[in-house]
Amino acid sequence: MIIVVDDDADQRLALKLALELAGYAVREAAHGAQALELQRAQPARFLVTDIFMPESDGFEAIAAFRREFPQTRIVAISGGGTRAKQDYLAAARLVGADATLQKPFDINTLLETLQALKDS
Amino acid sequence: MQAAISPPRRGLVRWAYVPIAGLVLLMAVLWAADLRESYVALGLTFVLQFVFMTLASGLIAYLVSRSFLAGGGIGLALLVCGILFWGLSGVVALAAGRGDFNISVTVHNLCIWLAGACHMTGALLSGRAARSSSQRGWWLFASYAATIGCVALVAHAARAGWTPTFFVQGEGGSLVRQTVLGTAIAMFVASAFLLGMKYRAAYSAFTHWYALGLTLTAAGLFGVMISTVHSSALNWTGVITQCLSGVYLLAAAIAAARESRAWEISLAGAPSDPRLRYALAVMFVAAAIALRMALLDILQTRHLTVTFFPAVILAALYGGRGPGLVAMLLSVAAIHAFGSAPAGRLGVGDLADWLVIALFIASSALIVWITDAVKQYQSRASAAEAANRAKDEFLAMLSHELRNPLAALSSAAHVLRLADPSGDAASKARRVVERQTKHMSRLIGDLLDVSRTSVGKLALDRERFDLGAAVAQLASVWRASGRFERHAVSVEAGPAWVDADRSRMDQIVANLLDNALKFTPAGKAVKLSVQQEDGAVTLRVADQGKGISPEAAARIFDLFVQEGPSGEGGLGIGLALVKQLTELHGGSVSVTRAGPGGGSVFTVRLPIAAPQAPAPKDAGHARATRSVLIVEDNDDARRMLEAALKLDGHEVRSAADAAGGLALAAAAAPDVALIDISLPDMDGYELARRLRAAPDGQRIGLVAVTGLGQPEDQRRARAAGFDAHLVKPVSAERLVQVMAQLR
Question: What whole-number distance in Å separates Cα of residue B22 and Cα of residue A111?
Answer without folding.
Answer: 81
